[in-house]
Amino acid sequence: MTEFSPLTRAVRAGIETDPVHGAVIPPLHSSTNYTFAAFGERRRFDYARSGNPTRATLGEALNGLEGGAGATVLATGTAAITLAVVSLLEPGDLVLYAHDCYGGTWRLFEELQAKGLYRFEAVDLTDTDAAAARIAEARPSLVWIETPSNPLLRITDVAAITAAAHAAGALAVVDSTFLTPVLMRPFEHGADVVVHSVTKYLNGHSDVVQGAIIARTAELAERFDHWSNVLGITASAADSHQVIRGLRTLELRVERHQRNAADLVAAIADHPAIAALHWPGLPTHPGHELAKRQQDGFGAMLSIELAGGEPAARAFVEALELFSLAESLGGTESLVAHPATMTHAAMTPEAQAEAGITAGLFRVSVGIEPIADLVTDFTAGLDAALRADADGQG
Ligand SMILES: *Cc1c(COP(=O)(O)O)cnc(C)c1O
User: Fold this and answer.
1) Domain 250-393, classified CATH 3.40.50.970, yes or no
2) CA–centroid distance, residue 147 to ligand 1 (Å)
3) Predicted TM-score of the model (pTM)
4) Model confidence over 91-122: pLDDT tens digits?
5) What would the 3-class secondary structure string for the chain be?
6) Which CATH architecture has domain 6-247?
7) From 49, 223, 292, 387, the catalytic residue
């Protein structure tokens, strides 16, 4: 048998597996329960919370893409993060985590700490030497990496931070939502666990909320599977069926997303309304060389800082016709989000300042629309921001 690539297997997930009718596309198994084959003879599935064929097909595809030992598909990305923390930690254990991580991750960690369950400490993981020193000193149980970070697209050296974690006896988890396995596979850099918000690029159409956790070892995969059932946070069969469909075009979409991002950046980079442009594909980006080394592409997430602060931010958004002002990312449609008032609003002003989130900052999820229209629309927004800034100063 030929060994086909994981990307090929993702395109063909579950194809030609229906033994009853020979359906090309795998059927959606909506049944909540499965008969025992005979007295005391359990089949592969018995109850859909603990497992069902549709979710299993998706899990196999995701695990294949990451190159892990097993994937567990959860109701949300946040459920995947919860599962990692609850199943891996003992009471009082310490987690060192990326200081500019996803806002919901930060909130979850803060709340678990407030309950006295575990301890969490934010660290700038992009400063490799300082982070490695802190890991060696603090001896955490887990190191929580998110790269590129949200919303400043800072790049963490996964191999170096993972090595530091292992030397201190910790496991390294990577939230790889922004890149997907098309652009980076954290296990190749030594990570122990990969988590995804499937909601984003993996599903890719902004119509399903879902998460996944993929383990490097069979022991960890079994633990995640067990705890996902214990906590009752597994994904539905219907959502899984829809995500299998999204996943078939993952590589195609990611290629177009990031080509559009590169072309948009080239078109707007010198616009006078922009004080700073964060995209790892720019040679001036501090993580550019590292991203080139550990990723297979620079991705389609970027952020801009408008020179005129909040008045410019308002004018920018009001002038946009194509880019939608919305949270989330990774769908086919182009979006802008304003972290200070949207995704990272749960953070205290101090935490926002520490993460570099200002009133003029926008995160951009570049969609797959024809690039000429994206450039026209974005430029109109920037022109309006510039006028607002001039008015403010004049
Ligand atoms: C969206 C997101 C999450 C949370 O996922 P949900 O599916 O919304 O629960 C976690 N990490 C990152 C990087 C995200 O972008």
Assistant:
1) no
2) 13
3) 0.96
4) 999 999 998 888 899 999 999 999 999 999 99
5) CCCCCHHHHHHCCCCCCCCCCCCCCCCCCCCCECCCCECCECCCCCECCCCCHHHHHHHHHHHHHHCCCEEEEECCHHHHHHHHHHHHCCCCCEEEEECCCCHHHHHHHHHHHHCCCCEEEEECCCCHHHHHHHHHHHCCCEEEEECCCCCCCCCCCHHHHHHHHHHCCCEEEEECCCCHHHHCCHHHHCCCEEEEECCCCCCCCCCCCCEEEEECCHHHHHHHHHHHHHHCCECCHHHHHHHHHHHHCHHHHHHHHHHHHHHHHHHHCCCCCEEEEECCCCCCCCCHHHHHHHCCCCCCEEEEEECCHHHHHHHHHHHCCCCEECCCCCCCCCEEECCCCCCCCCCCHHHHHHCCCCCCEEEEECCCCCHHHHHHHHHHHHHHHHHHHHHHHC
6) 3-Layer(aba) Sandwich (3.40)
7) 49
